[in-house]
Amino acid sequence: MEFRHLGASGMKVSEITYGNWITHGGQVEDDAATACVRAALDAGITTFDTADAYANGAAEEVLGRALKGVRRASLEVFTKVYFPTGPKGHNDTGLSRKHVLESIDGSLARLGTDYVDLYQAHRYDAFTPLEETMQAFADVVRAGKALYIGVSEWTAEQLRAGQALAADLGFRLVSNQPQYSALWRVIEGEVVPASQELGIGQVVFSPIAQGVLTGKYKPGRQPPAGSRATDEKGGGAQFVQRWLRDDLLARVQELGPIAAELDLTPAQLAVAWVLQNPNVASAIIGASRPEQVAENVKAAGVVIPLPLMERIDEVLGDAIERDPARTAANAPAQRLA
């Protein structure tokens, strides 16, 4: 495993982060989830990402149990706040002072830890004054409940405004967690340049585009049984559906020979691709089986030569989404409750 600094902070994280969105508390049973976490630890992963909204708190509980007994100082545990939780009442969402300060205590209890290494704003809250949110985060840090603060899917403008307020309050934003893959590059035009300027690193999710970049989804065929595209129970199907176009899937099949040139699987190539961006601190992988963790971890430390990076661009062509406006579109347009 290789390690990188998280933004301009002094903390290092593993190049591969294990994330339990969708899977823990939802798609897979607790025993399988625990086996995946143990496989991540065995593979050298020290960074684990979750959120209070995942399975309405159950994902945090599963992760906490799976990490029990591991030396806490050897881990980097991340969680998030924003989306509706608990009974989902009128104050059980957003980034108000009330919700942030109550949510961190709930997350710590579920995770079974006294602090998290990184506490993240899961989205930008346009309905709470940014000053209120940043003051709440400052108080979380001062109370020792989080060591660092990050955000997720914020625009370049939002990052600049948040960082300016954070600096006035005596802390810094160190990370952003956006979607990023060879197919989804919307952060490259504005978010990454702003982040480099501000000392913010990316911890990216969906580097395999919900499994599409593994090549297992074939044009003109039904999704394989047991794949995320068939997961109606855990919600995976709704997220992968947008990628299941025959023209796009045909292009993805052409990435197989490129991966083979590097002695990688298509999934490993996809994870290694996002790690070529120097502003990326870590790529989040998920898994429903331990062997998936062991395989994807092999992307750490891989250097993809420039000619092959250019060939990937040529193969994917106009299937690549680059519009920076898609980041703002990911933020909820109205308060969720």
Could you describe the 3D structure shown?
The chain has one domain: Alpha-Beta Barrel (TIM Barrel). The strands form two sheets. The chain has an eight-stranded parallel beta barrel, surrounded by four helices. Helix 1 (30-42) links the parallel strand 3 and strand 4. The chain has helices at residues 30-42, 58-67, 97-111, 130-142, 156-168, 191-198, 236-240, 246-253, 255-261, 266-274, 290-296, 306-316, 325-329, and strands spanning 3-5, 12-14, 16-19, 47-49, 76-81, 116-121, 146-151, 173-176, 201-204, 280-285. Helix 1 packs parallel to helix 11 (290-296). It is 37% helix and 13% strand. The chain is of the alpha/beta class. The longest helix is centred in the first third of the chain and has 15 residues, at 97-111. The mean pLDDT is 92.
Outline of the structure:
By secondary structure, this protein is of the alpha/beta class. Helices cover 37% and strands 13% of the residues.
List the helices and strands and how they pair.
Elements: E1 3-5, E2 12-14, E3 16-19, H1 30-42, E4 47-49, H2 58-67, E5 76-81, H3 97-111, E6 116-121, H4 130-142, E7 146-151, H5 156-168, E8 173-176, H6 191-198, E9 201-204, H7 236-240, H8 246-253, H9 255-261, H10 266-274, E10 280-285, H11 290-296, H12 306-316, H13 325-329
Parallel strand pairs: 3-4, 3-10, 4-5, 5-6, 6-7, 7-8, 8-9, 9-10
Antiparallel strand pairs: 1-2
Helix pairs in contact: 1-2, 1-11, 2-3, 3-4, 4-5, 5-6
